[in-house]
Automatic annotation (TrEMBL), chain A:
Keyword Transmembrane helix attributed: yes
Keywords: Cell membrane, Membrane, Transmembrane, Transmembrane helix
Name by which UniProt lists this protein: Multisubunit Na+/H+ antiporter MnhB subunit
UniProt organism field: Kineococcus xinjiangensis
Location within or outside the cell: Cell membrane
UniProt xrefs under Pfam families: MnhB (PF04039)
Family named by the database record: Belongs to the CPA3 antiporters (TC 2.A.63) subunit B family.
Automatic annotation (TrEMBL), chain B:
Classification via InterPro entries: CPA3_Na-H_Antiporter_D, NADH_UbQ_OxRdtase, ND/Mrp_TM
GO biological process, one term: ATP synthesis coupled electron transport
UniProt main location, coarse: membrane
Keyword DNA-binding: no
Protein name: Multicomponent Na+:H+ antiporter subunit D
Length: 167, 520
């Protein structure tokens, strides 16, 4: 695992399927991630929510994975928190928010509300369901990461036979 | 005694009692994903499942004494919110399922599939306990939900966990078989969600208690087609004829404890869904659905058992007997009488326990001999008399020999059948019982009698599941013995249990208290 060799000039590398795709992904990636956050936060009263936002973020991750060459993808996969941890934190947030009302004698999944006045933003309505939604978001993202790290690991070895040698 | 315990159960808020079997295992799964030390991971389900069992027992006591317990999640009133309902049937099945899950967990830990430490199966160790807990949550959610769409969600939770478990430590051929399972399950799910869409289009609600009233106003043809479509959806999950083909191909590839849990629980959840939907929301269509279910039950009984006799591998014989005996349960439902449905409920309880036991014993046999193929095993009684006993008791029970649980359950069904004069299906059920005995005798004669065979070496000695070794961990044998004892306890408690089943069946067919508890 030393420095990855760049593609030789003039030879299409099997690791870089399309320059167009790569550059295009670089352009839209951040917009997609921000859109996913937009969906996450508007989800309480409008179409959106943790699940769909997680799926949007997941497509961004898949795009990044497909566009980057596999070694970079693998490095990224190593750098992010392990998929199991993302899944675990998400599940803990979601299930925890669901049972938390029991402590105050409430019903499963009951939501608390507050309407604080935040400078710049003005009046904001906050619901504890948001924490649940963030949990769901993390579960979906964690699942996508798990799929990428499990299937991607093998795809890297089977698509590029002998790919380990040029490094 | 019961009064004291019921009083004790009443001290816990109903919301906690009903929600706990769904949410506690999910919290446990989250913790098991985050705390990755082997000891901690193992301790979490060992703590969670007994708490669930106590909770389910409390639910059963409360539901039996006070009628169905309904909880509206988030305090959104039905039919707008999500209802969780624990009536006698739901809480009884939750209790039996959790007991089975507990015993098999101990078995899995003993076998080593749960926490193999070698590098290759590192992912297995991380994944088994969380997936197992998610499966437990999905199973109890399926039993407790009072909402058709959330029944779909519960199925998905359960199936997602089962996809992970069935491909644990699988080689390429096993993954191919598991693909059949996954594709068939996904197709069934797509059909299910489509039917839910149609139901919502026709009535504007998905709350099952509310649907009972709403569907009564829908034109008969539309309602009947929805009822039949739901039978198809759940028929795939329950492995009813002719949609059973995926089961004998996919179940045998998983590790023994996983197959044991699948065999005991997953198909039964499908049957439960048939019973719940047909009795609760389609009560006016029984004139058509009854005969349809009866024909399906008869075909399932016969085709399943003929398949079992033709197999040459213990796991496959047992997988075909699952299919066959699903027919008994559906047959009881198809009569749509209190005695028939009570027999079906009793048969479900019996079959969950006994089928799990048989797959646990199969795991022990494979551990000793290294194979599940009947032509390569013989003379097991010379190796271990205990193994012979552990196999014989549940096998006789499956075949319906008195005084075991299978006899009681079959007697209840046959009496219900003769009461309505369905002599053909009664005769068929007796024939299938005899053929079940024959298939068990085939296993016994070939694997247990004769001179001891050579041990087949482990095909994959690297993986966590050791087979073909002469030693069997005491935990595996103890867990199997425990589940055999649970099976033996059913006939001992036969009187009260059948009385409970009769009350549960009366609830199902009357449905008044259920609807009242949900809609208030």
């Amino acid at each position: 695992m030393s420095t990855p060799a760049g593609p030789r000039p003039g030879t299409p590398s099997p690791r870089r399927p399309s320059v167009l795709f790569e550059v295009g992904t670089g352009l839209v990636l951040h917009a997609v991630l921000v859109t996913s956050l937009f969906f996450l936060f508007r989800g309480h009263n409008a179409p959106g929510g943790g699940f769909i936002a997680g799926l949007v973020a997941g497509t961004a991750l898949v795009l990044a994975y497909l566009a980057g060459d596999t070694s970079a993808g693998r490095r990224a996969a190593g750098a992010t928190p392990r998929p199991g941890v993302v899944l675990g934190v998400g599940l803990l947030l979601a299930a925890g928010t669901a049972v938390a009302p029991w402590l105050g004698g409430g019903q499963v999944l009951e939501s608390g509300y507050s309407h604080p006045h935040v400078p710049v933003l003005g009046g904001v309505s906050l619901a504890s369901v948001l924490i649940f939604d963030i949990g769901v978001y993390l579960v979906v993202v964690g699942l996508v990461l798990a799929v990428l790290s499990t299937l991607g690991e093998q795809a890297g070895t089977s698509l590029a036979p002998g790919g380990e040698e040029d490094r | 005694m019961t009064d004291v315990l019921t009083g004790l159960a009443r001290t816990v808020p109903a919301g906690v009692l009903v929600g706990l079997p769904v949410l506690l295992p999910l919290l446990g799964a989250a913790l098991a994903l985050l705390l990755r030390r082997a000891g901690t991971q193992r301790a979490i389900p060992l703590l969670v499942l007994p708490v669930m069992a106590l909770d389910a027992a409390a639910l059963l006591l409360r539901a039996d004494a006070d009628g169905p317990l309904a909880v509206q999640a988030g305090n959104w009133d039905a039919p707008f919110g999500i209802s969780l309902v624990a009536d006698r049937l739901s809480s009884l099945l939750t209790l039996v399922s959790v007991i089975v899950l507990m015993v098999v967990l101990v078995y899995a830990i003993g076998q080593g599939v749960a926490d193999a430490a070698d590098e290759r199966s590192d992912r297995v160790r991380v994944v088994f306990h969380p997936a197992y807990l998610v499966l437990a949550s999905g199973v109890s959610f399926s039993f407790l939900t009072g909402d058709l769409f959330n029944l779909f969600v519960a199925f998905e939770v359960m199936l997602t966990a089962s996809y992970v478990l069935i491909t644990l430590q699988a080689g390429p051929s096993a993954v191919r078989s598991a693909m059949t399972y996954i594709v068939v399950s996904l197709l069934a799910s797509v059909l299910f969600v489509t039917v839910i869409g149609l139901v919502y289009a026709a009535t504007g609600t998905v709350n099952m208690a509310d649907l009972r009233g709403a569907l009564a106003e829908v034109p008969g043809g539309v309602r009947l087609s929805l009822a039949l479509l739901l039978i198809v959806v759940f028929g795939i999950k329950a492995a009813l004829f002719p949609l059973y083909f995926w089961l004998p191909d996919s179940y045998p590839v998983a590790p023994a404890p996983v197959t044991a849990v699948f065999a005991g629980l997953l198909t039964k959840v499908g049957v439960y869904a048939i019973i719940r939907t047909q009795t609760l929301i389609f009560p006016d269509d029984t004139a058509v659905t009854g005969p349809v279910l009866l024909v399906l039950a008869g075909a399932t009984l016969l085709v399943g058992i003929l398949g079992a006799i033709a197999q040459n591998e213990i796991k496959r014989v047992l997988s075909f007997t699952i299919v066959s005996h699903i027919g008994f349960i559906v047959m009881g439902l198809a009569f749509f009488t209190v005695a028939g449905v009570a027999g079906a409920v009793l048969y479900m309880v019996h079959h969950i326990v006994i089928q799990t036991t048989l797959f646990c014993v199969e795991g022990l046999i494979e551990r000793r001999t290294g194979t599940s193929r009947l032509d390569r095993i013989s003379g097991l009684t010379h190796r271990s008399a205990l193994l012979g006993v552990l196999f014989a008791l549940p096998a006789l029970s499956l075949a319906g020999i008195p005084p075991f649980s299978g006899f009681l359950a079959k007697l209840a069904l046959l009496q219900a059948g003769s009461a309505v004069g369905s002599w053909v299906i009664v005769g068929l059920a007796v024939l299938v019982s005899l053929l079940t005995l024959y298939s068990m005798a085939l296993i016994w004669g070939s694997a247990f009698w004769g001179s001891p065979s050579d041990v087949v070496p482990d095909e994959d000695p690297e993986d966590a599941v050791q087979v073909g070794v002469r030693t069997v961990p005491a935990t595996m044998t103890a867990a199997t013995a425990a589940v055999v004892l649970v099976g033996l306890a059913i006939p001992v408690l036969g009187g009260p249990l059948y009385a409970l089943c009769l009350r549960a069946a009366a609830d199902l067919l009357a449905a008044g208290p259920y609807v009242e508890a949900v809609l208030g």
